[in-house]
């Protein structure tokens, strides 16, 4: 995992330390809160992730909002317009729209 301090990137805003797994793709138009962990090969675009969100390997988050401390399982898909509450748990391979 690579750790990044508070930085602004083109189309991406990271708030605090964030962990990105190998091959993870973030952006455009994404905001990641402090302590977010994005698993290997996951994709996050057009999404807002509050503090402490964990995204499993190969998961796809597209134009959604995920509140603090939520857990997204490996290969799960969170679709456009979805909003997950704080502490939500999405199972491996699940689809939320």
The N- and C-terminal alpha carbons lie at a distance of 29 Å
Percent of residues in helices: under 10%
User: From the helix content, strand content and strand pairing, which structural class follows?
Assistant: mainly beta
Mean pLDDT: 90
Strand content: 35-45%
Cα gyration radius (Å): 11 Å
| Name of the CATH first level | Mainly Beta
**Secondary-structure element order, N to C:** EEEEEEEEEEEEEEEEE
**Fourth-tier CATH superfamily name:** Hexapeptide repeat proteins
Give the count of helical stretches: 0
Q: Which spans have pLDDT < 50 for at least 5 consecutive residues?
A: none
Q: How many domains would you count in the coordinates?
A: 1
How is the largest sheet built, in terms of strand order? Answer: 1-4-7-10-13-16
The fold-level CATH name is UDP N-Acetylglucosamine Acyltransferase, domain 1
Shape: globular
Query: How is the biggest beta sheet arranged?
Result: 6 strands, mixed
Q: What is the CATH architecture annotation?
A: 3 Solenoid
Q: Got a strand count?
A: 17
List keywords for this structure.
six-stranded mixed beta sheet, 97 residues, 17 strands, single chain, mainly beta, UDP N-Acetylglucosamine Acyltransferase, domain 1
Task: Describe the overall structure.
- Strands 1-4-7-10-13-16 form a 6-stranded mixed sheet, with no helix packed on it. Strands 2-3-6-9-12-15 form a 6-stranded mixed sheet, with no helix packed on it.
- It contains no helices and 17 strands.
- By secondary structure, the chain is mainly β.
- The mean pLDDT is 90.
- The protein has a single domain (2-96), classed as UDP N-Acetylglucosamine Acyltransferase, domain 1.
- The chain has strands at residues 2-4, 7-9, 12-14, 18-20, 25-26, 30-32, 37-38, 43-45, 48-49, 54-55, 60-62, 65-66, 71-72, 77-78, 83-84, 89-90, 95-96.
